[in-house]
Amino acid sequence: DEKGLKVGGGGACGRGGGGGSISEKRKGSCCDDTSDTISVEGSVMVTLPTWAIAASEDFFSRKYHTDIEMMSLAIHLSDRNISEGTGGPFGAAIFERHPDKGYCTLVSIGMNRVVPLGNSTLHGETVAIQLAQRRVGSYTLMLDEDG
Fold it and tell me: Alpha-carbon distance 48 to 45, whole Å?
């Protein structure tokens, strides 16, 4: 599920900055208005913006043949994140290489979500890594036993 990753842990739920106690901030939503998930007390949600979810099918259905194509996707994610107002100017993508076939496939995407989700760890690359681990089902990102 590329929409979000629930990571166990504690911590306050709420937006950074401004006044108010932690308990007051917990009453608010941790997700911005451009995401389609809500946070639950005692959890941390990592979500992609709605536009990224909507565009994901196109990103994931492609075969990427060059480093330029792969970097272009990361740059596109960065640009779009700014133009949509859903985070900072940082995009990332993780690919699986298929050297015998001459192309790469997309494993995950990420973009900066620090401010919208109020979590200083949600840089574009960490979002992409967390979602890739979820998709692959392994914190090592090993796609098979032999690799």
Answer: 10
pLDDT digits (tens, 9 = 90+) for 22-51: 334 333 444 445 555 555 677 888 899 999
For the whole model, what pTM was predicted? Answer: 0.71
> Cα–Cα–Cα angle for 134, 63, 114, nearest 5°?
40
Whether 39 contacts 27, CB under 8 Å: no
**CB under 8 A, 24+ apart: contacts of 96-100:** 96/143
d(CA 55, CA 53): 5
CA distance 28 to 35: 15
For residues 37 and 47, what is the distance between their CA atoms, to the nearest angstrom? 7
The answer to whether 72 touches 83, Cβ cutoff 8 Å, is no
